[in-house]
Prior knowledge:
Elements: H1 2-11, H2 33-43, E1 49-52, H3 55-58, H4 62-75, E2 78-81, H5 91-102, H6 104-124, E3 136-142, E4 148-155, H7 157-171, H8 176-185, H9 198-205, E5 213-216, E6 219-223, H10 232-242, H11 245-249, E7 264-265, E8 273-275, E9 278-280, E10 283-285, E11 288-290, E12 298-300, H12 301-317, H13 329-354, H14 360-384, H15 388-391, H16 398-403, H17 407-417, E13 418-422, E14 436-440
Parallel strand pairs: 1-2, 7-13
Antiparallel strand pairs: 3-4, 5-6, 8-11, 9-10, 11-12, 13-14
The structure holds zinc ion.
Amino acid sequence: MEDCTRLATDRGWSVAETYVDNDVSASTGRRRPEYERLLDDIKRDRVSALVVWDIDRLTRTPAELETLIDLAEAHGVALASVGGEVDLGTPQGRLTARIKGSVARHEVEQSSRRLKRKFLERAESGLSHGKVAYGYVREPVIDETGTVRGYTELLHPEQAAVIQTATKRILAGEPLRAVASALNETGSMSPSGKPWSGTTLRQVLLRDRNAGRRVHQKQVIGKGNWPAILDDDSFDRLVALLRDPRRRTGNNGGVKHLLSGIAICGNCGERLRGAAEHRYGKKKQPRSYACQNCYKVRRKADAVDEVVEALVIARLERPDAADLFAGDSDAMTRATSEKLAIEARLDLLADQFADGLITGSQLERGTARLRPKLAEVEAQIIAASPSPEYAELVGPGVRARWEGQSLDRKRAVIDALMRVTVLPSGAGQRFSPEQVEFEWSL
Length: 442
Ligand SMILES: [Zn+2]
């Protein structure tokens, strides 16, 4: 309707009447009352011109098209179409109309184009489409005549709380699977009504809409008109964490060793893997970290763990430790203002498109140029942002609190704090703490 009204205005025509047959599929043979009313109005010479989105929306069968051509000719009705010009007054135009009407493949493409147009329109206006999303409820907006004019989205208190709690726990270093099973123990159900799994939880948590961002064709194009469940900062850090390739390739089946996949081989730079205690011939092999790439490094895991944990505890006990997880507020301010500027430009593009000032391909080109810049500043924000989840570890009595942490959480803290390298030492050499090199990253 928006496109058609614009075309009519371009032609200098005033819109006398609109005919909308909503929800009547072109392929079903159901009656279209508005279309019939249109034909009637043409017969009564109430219509001098007709604007359609596409000619194939107007008629459904070749016979219908012929009737319309005859009518338009007899009553001198001009026709304009948003999807390409078709002049029913010329033989060429009628041929075009007939070809268009009879090519079924075209219809399929059109219906997908129309759907896309509809989704884009909804995305632009900040409306969500499809099923109501997990974490939200929809409430009808009713005007004074009692007609439903649309929907507003509100938070579903329990579901939104599930998203918030799960995010907090994952940011604190708990693995998806553990958080999913904890949710299941509380009786919470995933959107499909089944118990949560790591995968379903990941899907729900990674939705941009949770941060109030509207997405069109997998790209964020602005702010939605629904409330956000997560603040931008938590959401961005969560996305970075869940998309971290090490986390994905890492041990989803429950890590058993503190430094497995974290400590680095001093010979080749690969990440070391943990191996449980086992028998090798008659000899008992202790739990160990080993390089499965160059085989030059194998160290007793207990000894390495002891060194690393002592380092972390000493670091967290220092008076300046509270600053460790405070982030870099200057860098954060810079990156955040840059991010706002880029988002404002994306919003402007979306508005210009909605107002018909730029075309869809111009919108796409513009957003494609801005997206990498946005990703870059978002990464800067994540690097500079504080990690309040770890702040509670800091201060006197760290050792006792550290011992009380889960293995996953300990791993997350070590990974954030330092880079651990285990040096090769030659066969038969006794372990010495100097073989563990470390570098603070915070
Ligand atoms: Zn190696």
